Amino acid sequence: MRPTTLILLVSLWIASVANLALWRALEHLPELDNWRGLAFGIAFAIMIVAAHVALFSLLAWRRTLKPALAIFLLAAAVGGYFMLSYGVVIDRTMMVNVLLTDTREARELLSPRMLATVLLLGVLPVALFWRVPLQWASVGRQWRRNVLLLIGSSATLVGAAGLSFQDLSSTMRNHTQLRYLINPLNSFYALAVVGRQPIQRNGAHVLPLGEDATLSAQAPGGKPPLVILVVGETARADHFGINGYARDTTPELARENVVSLRNVWSCGTNTAASLPCMFSNLGRDAFEQRTANTEGLADVLRHAGLAVLWLDNQAGGCKGVCDRVPKVDYKQFQAPDLCRDDECDDEVMLRGLDERIARLPAERRARGVVVFMHQMGSHGPAYFKRSPPAFKKFLPECTSSALQQCDQQQVVNAYDNTIVHTDHVLATAIDWLKSREAQWAPALVYLSDHGESLGENNLYLHGLPYAIAPDAQKHVPWIFWLSPQFAQQSHVALSCLARRRDDRLSHDNYFHTALGLLGVQTGAYVPARDIAASCRDPS
User: Fold this and answer.
1) Count of alpha carbons within 13 Å of 405, Cβ hemisphere only?
2) Longest dimension (CA), the chain
3) Would residue 205 count as lying in a domain?
4) Final residue of a structural domain among 161, 196, 231
5) Across 212-332, where does the E strand assignment appear?
6) Burial class, 326, CB count within 10 angstroms (exposed 0-12 / middle 13-18 / buried 19+)
7) Interatomic CA distance for residues 161 and 163, integer angstroms
8) Residue 426 lies in a domain
9) Each residue's pLDDT tens digit, 112-148
């Protein structure tokens, strides 16, 4: 077999079978439901084939062709599976997620169906062509053949684009998500973009922020604050009972004096994007355009002299935002009744917390303590693992990581059970804080990093590009509980916060609101972004 023949066969296989998600998406576009749509689809397929042929022509050499084709086929098989199964796309942020995930998170995505898909679409074609001997020409003649193949495929690509330009331009302009479905070219493009930029701009290159931070003078007789800032994981605002959800997923919080903001929107659609952004002083737009990374909320609180502790129950870690403060991660939690299968329930972070706080510097504790709790929360796809048996309120639930194999209601049941458990964790933390009011002025703030798709429009999980992501992946809960002592010292009226319940807010407000509540004064603080600033009665 000639190398050119193999290149054509592999390109046809990738453009057809490995791009089923793309063709399914095109099929459901109403403007293409006619003969012009069919013609556009054919032209688009020709363009994809030609693009792969052009690329492979650059790699058509004895030592490089088969390995390159194997990599493309395997990548296409994996990408095709996730696109078809979960409705996700592979863009820059999704590639960052892939590169930053740990083995525990990766294991949850493995399933017999995934292995079968990769074997059928990737491993089998590779095994078939790997055994086929190729008829290589001399180096000079192979050069000429590769150049002719490149010119021919490029001309075909341009010609097909030209013939369907009107439909192509309008379709791609109105449905930008289609370009993310071109598999695996978009995956390699996303990887190249990530390669040009650091995955996390942290470490030695982090610029200082808020080194001028100071604390407001404590009133006579006041107590140092003890604040728990809970970073939720994958929680949807519209699945919280206290936000109007039809199901009672938050019975314990409903009995507490909390304020839940109902119209809050995330920085991103995945943890790697949202967490550094919400801890930044910049806001989403400026954060996306930044040329360097700076310290964040945890650092500014430390600069102000507060005792800061980060507790992480998620294997994915804090994405750099806790690198410069004391931290405890999930590997260090020891509680047989709360831990199983290399995973602990979120309330484990309250175990031994008094002792952990006592080990923080005494001079800082005297000014106040801030404890960050990074939840496992509702992390998917194995939602059933995120709720202990006592909190499985909605049954039957999906007990598989391959969500597409479950009835959608079972997926929703499993997810809602994780919210029931989060409700319990937050209420337990509030009770823990109440029991320490004699020594401290306690408060709790909960805010999730992003939302989740649960099968709506055949979308699962999260991580779609922000511009095309559904609201389910961006609409997040934000909850406040303030003890009477803390409310008095911070001059914040909960009733005023409650009046902002339906105001459109976002992660852009988190950094500045946290500083305002804790009385931190710094040039990095912007009062206009502090949602509690207008609620303060300094009298």
Assistant:
1) 11
2) 89
3) no
4) 196
5) 214-215, 225-232, 259-265, 307-312, 327-329
6) middle
7) 6
8) yes
9) 888 899 999 999 999 999 999 999 989 899 999 999 9
Confidence band for 202, pLDDT divided at 50, 70 and 90: very low
Which pLDDT value is given to residue 233?
96
Residue 417 above 60 pLDDT? yes
Q: Are residues 299 and 360 in the same domain?
A: yes
Q: Please check whether residue 171 is in contact with residue 29, taking contact to mean a CB–CB distance below 8 angstroms.
A: yes
| pTM of this structure | 0.85
Q: 24 lies in which domain range?
A: 3-196
Q: How far apart are CA 109 and CA 206, in angstroms?
A: 33
CATH of the domain at 400: 3.40.720.10
- pLDDT of residue 177 exceeding 90, the answer is no
- Whether 218 is covered by a domain: the verdict is no
Domain membership flag for residue 210 = no
Q: Which pLDDT band, with edges at 50, 70 and 90, does 97 fall under?
A: low
By CB neighbour count within 10 A (0-12 exposed, 13-18 middle, 19+ buried), where does 341 fall?
exposed
Same structural domain, 186 and 104: yes
Band of pLDDT at residue 199, cut at 50, 70 and 90? very low
Residues 267 and 148 in one domain: no
Same structural domain, 121 and 230? no
